[in-house]
Structures are given as structure tokens and as C-alpha cells.
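step=predict obj=Fructose-bisphosphate aldolase n=283
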Amino acid sequence: MSSPQRNKSKQILDAAAAGKYAIPAICVYNMEGVLATIKGCEAKRSPGMILLFPWAQQYSSLGLATFAAHCAKAAKVPITLHLDHAQSAEAVKMAADSGCYDSIMVDMSHYDKEENLSRTEELARYCHERGIAVEAEPGRIEGGEDGVSDTGELEAMMTDEDEARRFVETGIDWLAPAFGNVHGKYGPRGIQLDYERLHRLNRAVGKDVRFVLHGTDGFDEEILSKCIDGGMVKVNINGAVNRHWVAAVKKEGTLTGLIEKATNDMQKEVEMWCSLLKSEGKA
Ligand SMILES: [Zn+2]
């Protein structure tokens, strides 16, 4: 299988692994999110990633992806474009063929284990042939996220070492392990992560793949630090940034006022995450 060695996203994450920091990967839904991510990373001299969901493809065809790819290329720091939670072969192939994306999460975790593995392998090859890096999720990361099909009714399954190894054998570049992390809001049980498991997984496959953290709502510096210790180098951030857009809509009177206020508040949040993840000054 050809591997996208010169892929910019892979280079960013490999550098983060070597330097023991993580890259803010911001889920965006609109132009303001794209601009806030880039401006925030530029202000902090941090590399960064823009994440779109397949929802963006349904909503605007390749409009938002084309805009994001253009802005990422023009940024003064390394910024790449990633498709998060692509849950069908059609979504993966549309993104891979578009020329917009540097990386794609092939999320076949709604299939049973064997089918998840075989579909992941086939789609990873498709992406690699086009120079695109691939992320996959072996266990089911519980919960639902805005723009992702709600699979919350599926039983949460934590990733074990055997499973992680089998996923690595499919040829993926990055792995999103399930170790107690949950998409969206953490319930009354609070945030309970199995760091022991994360370290075991890191010892088992950490030299072959990079780790991606999903479900970071409410994570503080201490938790993030422990996750980075366990090998996490790409940290997906959604609600923390996008709730500023929703707040601005409720407050601002004019359209330009709203857009500028939302972008600015989201940018400040991105800057804070660059500090938390220690990626500040690494671009
Ligand atoms: Zn996710």
C-alpha cells in the first residue's frame, strides 16, 4: 500500500509526537469557524487542523471544503483540512476525489468488528492512493455530535490492544482509541478516562500510529496533559469553540456585528486551546 509520506497532516502530527504536544483540531460548520481557527493558530504560531463533517458536504456540496482548503493553503502557519467521521464509502470517496482534504477519518465503527476492519482497509487504500492520511476508530466512542449520526444507542466499547493492532494492520495512519471518552456532553458520571488503558495501547501500537482524542468537552489542562502523556497528538475540539457562535447570534443586532463578534470570540477560544495543548510557538 502506498503511504502518503509527504502528507502535510502526517508531518504536523509526527512533529507533535516528537515534541510532546498536541494539535488543536477544530470542528467547524461555517466560514467563521474556518477563519477563527486560522487566525487563532496564526496568533499563537501554532499548527492546526480544520475539521469538517460530512454534513458540510450535504449542506454545501464542496463549497465549504473548497473555501477551507483555500484558506488553509494561504495561512501563515501549517493548517490542514480533515474530514471527520465519514460514515459511508460515498462520503469518503467524494472527499478523497475532491482534492480539498489532507486527511479523512474513515468511521466504520457502526458496523460489526470484522466489517469495520475490512471496510476500513479498503477505504484506507483508496485514500492513500490519493496521498490522503487516514484515521479510524476501533471501539465505539459513545455519544453523538452535532453533524454526526447519533450512534449513542450502540453499546460503548473500549479499545483493547489486540483490536488496536488489527486496526494498525489495515494500514491506517492514526487511531482514535475509546478509553472512556464520550462525544458531546459528559453525563452526570463526569469525565472518567482509563489512562492505564491508553498507556497500554500506546505501548502496543504507539510507534506505528498516532493517537487522536475525540470527546473533549469540559477537559481541563490536567486532563489534556495526561492525554498527551498517553500519546494523544490530535485533539478534536467542537462545542468549546462553536458555542461562541451560538452565543453571538443571541446577542448581536447586525449581521456584520454578529459575524465579526462570533469569529473573534471563536478565535480567542482557539488561542486558549493552543496554549493548553502546548502547540503554541511550534509553527
Ligand atoms: Zn469524534
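step=describe
Residues 255-276 form the longest helix (22 residues).
step=end
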